[in-house]
Amino acid sequence: MQGQAQQQAYDRGITIFSPDGRLYQVEYAREAVKRGTASIGVRTSEGVVLAADKRSRSPLMEPTSVEKIHKADDHIGIASAGHVADARQLIDFARRQAQVNRLRYGEPIGIETLTKTITDHIQQYTQVGGARPFGVALLIGGIENGTPRLYETDPSGTPYEWKAVSIGADRGDLQDYLEENYREDLTLDEGIGLALRAIASTNDDELDAGGVDVGTVSGETEAFVELTNDEISEYIAENDLEPSEDEDEGGDETAE
Amino acid sequence: MQGQAQQQAYDRGITIFSPDGRLYQVEYAREAVKRGTASIGVRTSEGVVLAADKRSRSPLMEPTSVEKIHKADDHIGIASAGHVADARQLIDFARRQAQVNRLRYGEPIGIETLTKTITDHIQQYTQVGGARPFGVALLIGGIENGTPRLYETDPSGTPYEWKAVSIGADRGDLQDYLEENYREDLTLDEGIGLALRAIASTNDDELDAGGVDVGTVSGETEAFVELTNDEISEYIAENDLEPSEDEDEGGDETAE
Amino acid sequence: MQGQAQQQAYDRGITIFSPDGRLYQVEYAREAVKRGTASIGVRTSEGVVLAADKRSRSPLMEPTSVEKIHKADDHIGIASAGHVADARQLIDFARRQAQVNRLRYGEPIGIETLTKTITDHIQQYTQVGGARPFGVALLIGGIENGTPRLYETDPSGTPYEWKAVSIGADRGDLQDYLEENYREDLTLDEGIGLALRAIASTNDDELDAGGVDVGTVSGETEAFVELTNDEISEYIAENDLEPSEDEDEGGDETAE
Amino acid sequence: MQGQAQQQAYDRGITIFSPDGRLYQVEYAREAVKRGTASIGVRTSEGVVLAADKRSRSPLMEPTSVEKIHKADDHIGIASAGHVADARQLIDFARRQAQVNRLRYGEPIGIETLTKTITDHIQQYTQVGGARPFGVALLIGGIENGTPRLYETDPSGTPYEWKAVSIGADRGDLQDYLEENYREDLTLDEGIGLALRAIASTNDDELDAGGVDVGTVSGETEAFVELTNDEISEYIAENDLEPSEDEDEGGDETAE
Amino acid sequence: MQGQAQQQAYDRGITIFSPDGRLYQVEYAREAVKRGTASIGVRTSEGVVLAADKRSRSPLMEPTSVEKIHKADDHIGIASAGHVADARQLIDFARRQAQVNRLRYGEPIGIETLTKTITDHIQQYTQVGGARPFGVALLIGGIENGTPRLYETDPSGTPYEWKAVSIGADRGDLQDYLEENYREDLTLDEGIGLALRAIASTNDDELDAGGVDVGTVSGETEAFVELTNDEISEYIAENDLEPSEDEDEGGDETAE
Amino acid sequence: MQGQAQQQAYDRGITIFSPDGRLYQVEYAREAVKRGTASIGVRTSEGVVLAADKRSRSPLMEPTSVEKIHKADDHIGIASAGHVADARQLIDFARRQAQVNRLRYGEPIGIETLTKTITDHIQQYTQVGGARPFGVALLIGGIENGTPRLYETDPSGTPYEWKAVSIGADRGDLQDYLEENYREDLTLDEGIGLALRAIASTNDDELDAGGVDVGTVSGETEAFVELTNDEISEYIAENDLEPSEDEDEGGDETAE
Amino acid sequence: MQGQAQQQAYDRGITIFSPDGRLYQVEYAREAVKRGTASIGVRTSEGVVLAADKRSRSPLMEPTSVEKIHKADDHIGIASAGHVADARQLIDFARRQAQVNRLRYGEPIGIETLTKTITDHIQQYTQVGGARPFGVALLIGGIENGTPRLYETDPSGTPYEWKAVSIGADRGDLQDYLEENYREDLTLDEGIGLALRAIASTNDDELDAGGVDVGTVSGETEAFVELTNDEISEYIAENDLEPSEDEDEGGDETAE
């Protein structure tokens, strides 16, 4: 109870340290990320795979309206988890940065460069007053000089580079699953399969093509591509993940 | 009681996260939406239907003065639920965006584009300090490249695309009603009937032409049209929804 | 008591939602309106009537100094109830808008247009921090394209159109009185009589010419006119409302 | 005690409404006015009289240094009661407005126009945050088109027109005295006598020429004139108000 | 104790009224003035005398470093009491105003004009948020059109004109002393003697030349002059105020 | 418990002193530094060594993504400990300052000059409101006029020059280790060995090449160089620090 | 305990007065000064001596990195005590002011002029909101027109001129020591000896050349000079202050 009272004191001040050197608002923003359904990134030898769990909440909602995989530039895809409206702000920011880079230097923006421009932007919202942190994490995947790269941004504004990673709900279980099943020499196809099986692993090993989005950037084409429902269905079938019945609602209303 | 005390701590700080990653002011703004009478959107094979429950509070009030269906552009209508004055701000914002699009690109704004411009605007009021969130939800319906589209915006700034949806009071019951009765191959006429029956379903299956507004954007004309009282009366009669007596006041004074 | 404590929490934050989706500061501003003496608007077949109860507080105060009926433009009158100094701000705002309209478009401003410009202005004070809401309601009456129009604005910034309406003290009783006695085919003279009898109804059916202001905009002249004391006395006599003795002080010092 | 706690909540927020629609800071500013010694205005058939009780606190203080009657323009005098430093701000504001009017329109400013410009200025300090209300009331007297006019401004920014009025300490008693003894056909001389007797009435019917300031604007000269000590002594003698001994200190140190 | 709690509520809000119409921050700033050692002003028939008690705290401190008498312009001296650093701000402000007057109008600034420019500046710090009031009082003495004038400013921004006055510590006793011993026909020499004896009266009738500053503006020369230590010693001897032993430290560290 | 309550009072106000003259937010920011894994700087006779403990948290995370050693300019390296996102801000600031110096003066920036520009920047965040202090410490090492220099910055904005120093976790033990083992005549190779053995000393004297970053600026080349994993492995082997098994996770998620 | 609660109320509001007229934040900033090790200034007949106790905390820290004596201009030195990072801000401010004076007037800035420019700058941080006061005191020594001058600035922004003075830890004892041993006819050499013996007096009469900084401005050269370690050692030897063993750590980490 005392701990609770103490914590409350730090809730109200957005950008201040607690006596043990923590930023509570940033940690609470991480909770907003956890409230969203999971997104997964897998770096394979042939390219990067982004997959997002977006189990539709209502049969009347357009499944495409729950956007968790976004094209940031020709060669870059971004998957998000957490507060949807915040994600849109960062995606827009990323797209503008990518465009500016093409205009200014006549070449596609580097994956690491884009990631760090975004995390610097996020950091400002954790240090300067008058706004709250972003309640969203991103996976930024693309090809840079022919090499697949996969980055994560978190609400503190820290960039991380990964071979395979999940953000959002069930991160602990999903990360364990990825560690057990990841191999650096995966093909892009195998990467898609790994991502889908990981998502299904938190759902009785079942998956519905409408309940998941998949995007890839292959090293060959250097182009971000979103898979069609039919393509996803094929992968689901190949991986024996067909659901036996409809999904329930999942996650928070504004956090995907 | 403790929970209550804790919650209060987050009421005062507009744009901060709670320890479990929620934004209370946004959730309270959703309550303001629920205090308004319902609005319903139905996407049919022939166009989009918007209908709004506006049961007049006083026989001396002009029924037309309670505006819940608005024309945003020639090809786009918007229905609102919640804080009326806030709704007007967003409608004005939408109209300006639509005009700017025509001036800048010489063509009508896309329904999705308009929706996301509005939700980005709404999001700003949930992250940057010095203002409260918008206490209103919108249904944005129109024709884009010949195809009917129907979107919802909520106080968090999240955009959703729907086949049929309700905002405002009784969303749970109305959404159930729509799920049971919606078919994708509805004609525009059938869509109007479905919307009116849904609204009536929360009111002993009775409806008064003066107590409901209906607007449509048909795929043929690509034009937003508001139905006259006579036209609405005809639909009410066709659907056996005539009231046996006058309506009481309903809803909050500033929330429709 | 708990409820009270909870309410206090929302008093201090001007522009935030309560857990049930209400804006307390706006509701308290409505109380400021109720503290003012009543104003009444009646839309007749021949024009609009505005009447205001302004029972003078002291025999030494100039009755004309308590202004509750104002000319906004040649064809528009405005009656107010609530915080007097706030009313003056909105009346000035209305006059500037009307002038700008004449300068810009060479024609008188529409009644609905003016009303909504005012309510949008009022809304800003309920959403953006750094100021309190306006503690005043207005009745805006005038002729638009030959048709009498009567609007109300409230502290939330919501516009309403009415056939007959009262703002300020005793709204419940006065509205009942109007509902019982209003007819759409009233002449302007009958409208004046109805307004005066309504005001008198809350005062033992007595009225003093110095204690009431009356303004009209007739459809014929399209001109706002304030009645002289003699004219008002005639109407009082015609309606058998002469007082038997002097009025006491009434209402709040700064709320009319 | 509960009432007190509740009140405290509203003290801290300058520009917010209490649940019963009151603005406590404005009401407290009125208390600051009451802490000042009284000023009195009397409109006579021949002009306006302003008189101010300024009982000097120390024999070493220059009586003229306690300024309560000010010249705003050739034809306008202003008497104040309350916070002295605040009064000076408003007097300076009034003088600038009067000068601007002469420069812009080549004619003296109207008394009502000046009053309302001042009250609009005062109102801003009650609605917009970042400052406290003015803790002072003014009496503005002058000749407009040959007619004497007398206005009061209060801390809420409400303008009132009066035949005779007092501001500051003992308003209740003084207003009663004025109501009993005022006649519209008073000469300017009789008006001065009435004002002095009123002030003396709260002080055992005694008055010292050094303890009171008197200014007049006669309809004939249309010029604001301050009476000399000798002239005031004559009026005191004529009205049998000579003191039998020296006055004590009175009022608040910064409120006159 | 309740009174204390209530008072605390007003401490935090700099520029707000208490329920009884007081501005606590201004009253606390007056306490800062009282913490400073006294300054005294005496207006004689031949000019103005300013004297300041500055009993040095340490034998190693340069007595001249404790500045309490300042030259504002050729014909104006200013004595201060209270927060030293605040005094410097106002003295600088006064000097700039005096210079601007000479540049703009080619003549020395009037004593009353300068005083009121300073008090208007002080008032702003009591009404507008974001800063605290000035914790200092000033005595402004000089010759205007051949006549000696002596003004006081206090933390509320109120100007007072005096024949003789003290600010800072022991004001009650000193003012009594001055009232008993002041005569309007004092010579400048007698005025200096009165000021020194007054200061000595609060210190066992003893005074040290290093512990007091004296400045004069004589009507003949119209020039501000600071007395040398030798001159002060002579006056001390003439008035039998030689100390028998050294002074102790006195007053607050930053308040003189 | 009382102490705790008192401390809380200072947590909320970012830039204020406690009664004993401390700035709690700065002290809490130092705790954020301690939450990060250690970085070590060693100044040798031949150049400067920077080493950072970055024990990877997950086998799937790219070890290079945890950046703790940064190149600020050709001749300057910076090691950080604490909040990663904050470190990035300061590193960017340092790089811009170095570039500006080359552009403006045509020569490399001095190590002391760069350090003090950074600490002045950090100090601003501890004095001016509206932001929190930086939760990071830096070690800035380089060659200036042929001489190796090693500086530390802390969250208060104080610069320190060191012969050998550690920041982050285990500073007490590491500093003791360095004091016991440092010699001014170390070669660059010996300096690298000392740094690695120091880091290993807090970890059972074991180290993994992937779990540590090493950078040097030799006096000969005046160039900042990061060691490859192979080079680090060699040093680890030479110093008998090979780990017997994998490292666990260490430190805070956003603090390195 | 009550006193403590009351004090807390004033901690949070940076720039407000307490009921007894004190500025707590300024007093707490003085505590920050006391947390720093002492600096001493001695004005001799031949020039000014500045000496600073800087007992190094760690054998690995460069003694020169703890800067407590700074050159502000050719003829001015400044010693500081308190918050190191704050001191740097004021030193930079002083250097800019000195440079501006040379550019603008072509001559070196006066010692008093520079001191008062600095104290006016410090005062602003105690009156205007949005920042905390400076937690540092300065001794400013130099030659002005051939005469040695020695000034002190404190966190309130008050300037003092001294013959000999100490700031920082042990001010009470050190000031007593100086009062007992100071003579106005000291030579510069004797002044250095006095300063060193004073510092040693708080440390068992022992001193280490690396633990103290000494700077002088002689009247002959009018140039600020810092003594080398060897020179200091000689003075220590001459004054019999050689330490028998190493010093422990002393003072606060960021306060010197």
From TrEMBL, chains A, B, C, D, E, F, G:
- GO molecular function annotation: hydrolase activity
Primary location group: cytoplasm
Where's the Proteasome alpha-type subunits domain?
10-32
Residues of the region (Disordered) are 235-256
Q: Keywords in UniProt for this one? A: Cytoplasm, Hydrolase, Proteasome
UniProt xrefs under InterPro entries: Ntn_hydrolases_N, Proteasome_alpha, Proteasome_alpha-type, Proteasome_asu_arc, Proteasome_asu_N, Proteasome_sua/b
List the CDD domains hit by this protein, alphabetically: proteasome_alpha_archeal
Enumerate the subcellular locations listed in this protein's record, separating them with semicolons.
Cytoplasm
Per the record, GO CC terms?
Answer: proteasome complex
Modulation of this protein's activity: The formation of the proteasomal ATPase PAN-20S proteasome complex, via the docking of the C-termini of PAN into the intersubunit pockets in the alpha-rings, triggers opening of the gate for substrate entry. Interconversion between the open-gate and close-gate conformations leads to a dynamic regulation of the 20S proteasome proteolysis activity.
Please give the superkingdom of this protein's source.
Archaea
PROSITE patterns in the cross-refs: PROTEASOME_ALPHA_1, PROTEASOME_ALPHA_2
Q: Please name one Pfam family that this protein belongs to.
A: Proteasome_A_N
Q: Which family does it belong to?
A: Belongs to the peptidase T1A family.
What does the UniProt record say this protein does? Component of the proteasome core, a large protease complex with broad specificity involved in protein degradation.
Quaternary structure and partners = The 20S proteasome core is composed of 14 alpha and 14 beta subunits that assemble into four stacked heptameric rings, resulting in a barrel-shaped structure. The two inner rings, each composed of seven catalytic beta subunits, are sandwiched by two outer rings, each composed of seven alpha subunits. The catalytic chamber with the active sites is on the inside of the barrel. Has a gated structure, the ends of the cylinder being occluded by the N-termini of the alpha-subunits. Is capped at one or both ends by the proteasome regulatory ATPase, PAN.
Q: What is this protein called?
A: Proteasome subunit alpha
Source species of the chain: Halogeometricum salsisoli
